[in-house]
């Protein structure tokens, strides 16, 4: 009797362990996809940062020249317009990056929570099935060992 109980308990533990490993594997895949998304966003932001640095350097040169030569005011205004466009693009890019990261993080966390709940529920269902089979087996075994006594209908002692 103890051998069967131990075997059923070990099998239930193995099933629970496999279910938890599957849930962890799915979570790791989602985290890897999230990391790839972040890296692609980062790769898109690098050229923009280079452009901003270049425009900032150009604006600095124009500012120095303007102090010496008033006739080059047109160049300063052009650099200022480029700077404005770059700032607007960078603000837009930062906003899009922030929104994308927020959406991705929220989606991954929600998916992980839903997936975890579903897998835990499934695992508990399997554990309950194992417990029911074990109780049924114990009842049949008791009935076979003592034919005079009527076995109860799989009643849980809880």
From TrEMBL:
What are the UniProt keywords, alphabetically?
Membrane, Transmembrane, Transmembrane helix
> What stretches pass through the bilayer?
6-24
Listed name of the protein: DUF948 domain-containing protein
